[in-house]
Write a structure and sequence with these properties.
Number of helices: 3
Largest sheet: 6 strands, antiparallel
CATH superfamily: Core binding factor, beta subunit
Order of helices and strands: HEHEEEEEH
CATH topology: Polyomavirus Enhancer Binding Protein 2, Chain: A
Mean pLDDT: 90
Radius of gyration: 16 Å
Helix content: 10-25%
CATH class: Mainly Beta
Low-confidence stretches: none
Structural class: alpha+beta
Shape: globular
Length: about 120
């Protein structure tokens, strides 16, 4: 497993990454779409991961989006550097920040990256 994946398995600060602005309205819209971006700012330049939410594993029950209070627990699977992982993040609504980590789902590395030009041409 590579260094970035290993580093992100440790719980650390995270932020909801939202465009065009980090607002409660934009975060709620991302949750409603079932796809969020979470930023791990503690890595070189920050690492932003987009993840499709697992509605069974995520917990929105303590969130009051209208008042901007409470917290959400977002969980979803993705592939990072050819490693299958599950993102776990608790986001406090007032600041759209919290703690998060990755859980490695498979130690095996998936098939290596994109085809080179010669392979792509055939």
């Amino acid at each position: 497993m590579n260094e970035l994946v290993q580093r992100l398995t440790e719980e650390q600060p995270v932020q909801a990454s939202l465009r065009p602005a980090a607002t409660m309205e934009n975060f709620k819209a991302a949750i409603d779409r079932g796809y969020v971006h979470i930023l791990f700012p503690g890595t070189k330049g920050g690492t932003e991961l987009g993840v499709e939410l697992d509605p069974e594993a995520s917990d929105l029950s303590s969130a009051d989006f209208a008042a901007g209070t409470g917290e959400v627990s977002v969980v979803g699977d993705l592939v990072l550097d050819y490693v299958k992982v599950r993102l776990h993040a608790r986001i406090d609504l007032p600041g759209l920040e919290g703690l998060g980590r990755l859980e490695v789902l498979e130690d095996e590395v998936l098939e290596e990256g994109p085809l080179d030009d010669e392979e792509a041409a055939s």
